[in-house]
């Protein structure tokens, strides 16, 4: 599962762009991942995540959302299959248990594949499943997510909440204008994955295809803020969403055009600020 501005690898018909995947994962962990903290907080608060929660996190990245859940006392399993480097960083983060607070638990599991141990007498079912990587920008991302959720559903208890996330309306996401740089360059390579606009019912469609029952939703402001343009470039490129553009042109050209697209969002002090809105859906397992 690897959609949107949290996407580490995109399928590509030609040679993949050369990249230092360790450095990219570090940029993601240190710069970009925190942009979705308001989303994590809103969901955890709404669902009262705490010591009674057994969380299955799909696409857990470098572990920031996991640390936030662990600090609330949740037992958790994080699945990150798209990036071994991000998974390694998550393991580093989750070793620092003394920084989580008094409610932290030791019941933590990190893996690069979906667990196969179905719920039973010896294996309590998960009480919450999250898929925080926002869909709604890359063609095919809804099908990928629906398949993953269908496979994960038997691991959760009946009626357990499953949380999906997507980009909000393009007119409420300033970063949309910057993403068009990557889309425009990628159009030069007909073998690449195509970007697409977010659709209003993306999340509901995914939930139904996965056999889930929609049961509430919300919107959260998640502005993308960076110390300067260089930091913004590192953060945005760490997502992998610009890989197809780099393959179709070159790294320097993509960085140049992206920096130009960031200009309207640069403040007088040199910081970069892009307001965005993300949507989440709460669905229920059958």
Chain-wise SSE layout:
Elements: H1 21-32, H2 37-46, E1 54-58, H3 64-71, E2 75-79, H4 84-95, E3 108-111, E4 128-135, H5 141-152, E5 161-167, H6 175-186, H7 202-209, E6 213-221, E7 224-226, H8 229-237, H9 243-248, H10 251-262, E8 272-274, E9 277-284
Parallel strand pairs: 1-2, 1-4, 2-3, 4-5
Antiparallel strand pairs: 5-9, 6-9, 7-8
Helix pairs in contact: 1-8, 2-3, 5-7, 6-10, 8-10
Describe it:
This protein has about 290 residues and is an alpha/beta fold. Helix content is about 35%, strand content about 20%. The chain contains 10 helices and 9 strands. The strands form 2 sheets. The protein has a 7-stranded mixed beta sheet with strand order 3-2-1-4-5-9-6, with helices on both faces. Strands 7-8 form a two-stranded antiparallel sheet. Helix 1 (about 20-30) packs across helix 8 (about 230-235) and helix 8 packs across helix 10. The radius of gyration is 18 Å and the shape is globular. The model is unreliable at about 1-15 (pLDDT under 50).
